[in-house]
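Incident log, entry 3
Record: Mitogen-activated protein kinase kinase kinase 20 isoform X4 (403 residues)
Problem: checksum mismatch between cached and fresh output.
Input:
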Amino acid sequence: MSSLGASFVQIKFDDLQFFENCGGGSFGSVYRAKWISQDKEVAVKKLLKIEKEAEILSVLSHRNIIQFYGVILEPPNYGIVTEYASLGSLYDYINSNRSEEMDMDHIMTWATDVAKGMHYLHMEAPVKVIHRDLKSRNVVIAADGVLKICDFGASRFHNHTTHMSLVGTFPWMAPEVIQSLPVSETCDTYSYGVVLWEMLTREVPFKGLEGLQVAWLVVEKNERLTIPSSCPRSFAELLHQCWEADAKKRPSFKQIISILESMSNDASLPGQCNSFLHNKAEWRCEIEATLERLKKLERDLSFKEQELKERERRLKMWEQKLTEQSNTPLLPSFEISAWTEDDVYFWVQQLVRKAGDSSVEMSGYASLFKDNNITGKRLLLLDEEDLKDMGIVSKGHIIHFKL
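Fresh output:
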């Protein structure tokens, strides 16, 4: 089962007393339980089968990584048993009234906890591990207040830059992960920046936007979460560095730890930070304004997609009518977007014949479309102004081509 020869402690299913569901991890549900023979409170992730996560956890040992106890291997009962973090996830904490107690010392301590855990995974673990799904839901708070990184279901042992499948949750995902491009460990740096933003703002990243729309905004529009104008400069600069589009420009976690240490020695920062945290009402509107702008972009995109679909539907109807009239297939495909310039040329010829206009001007339009390199994709995007720019100025003629 393990290429590293990991020796798993096997825990009997009957040796566990299950209580409430305390969350869903990647590929499984997590329950609070009692390990009866050890008289220990534990967390159990129930799985359909044991895969890489147990192998990864079994070789990790760090204060800021959830502790692995063993596995359940009794078909159909499979699971991973780890320490139980009684104070819940960082996400739940941030989005509760408890987060109002946060001050700079609190944020710096927790930001350092996560950074040290990630540095261990990348540089100090027996084998380098890229987490790939770092987010506030996958960071838990132990009884002593220490943050611990958990849920390694999406993680991979890593010896070199690798190609990633699409895993994780879009608001926390680096652009290269969203695009399934080759990645390095700095994809986790991007995610760390989002977690730090959550701690500073106590807001949900890209709240109200669909995951795929977030992906489009981050990749195609290079959008990032709003950093309020009154956010202390050192925090803002760190966030910007973490969210660089070029993964090579993002800081390593060793560098992040060093940056956090320097910030801790800045005597003016606590006052700035605490003022920022306590005056949320003054800057929250900046985040809300950005969300409204992004939602408008989303609506505009949706409208454009619907408009293109309607144009293509009308084109298909026209083509089908022409086919029925001639009793022969006119074009190689009903997928308008796949038409070549020759296909469009032929389609315009048929349209002119159907219109019954034998004027020299109308009959020359097929060549006009070809001269302007109009393919199926470009045809779908043409509007009235485009047609006029091409030289089709007659309103009566424009009606024939305006989709």
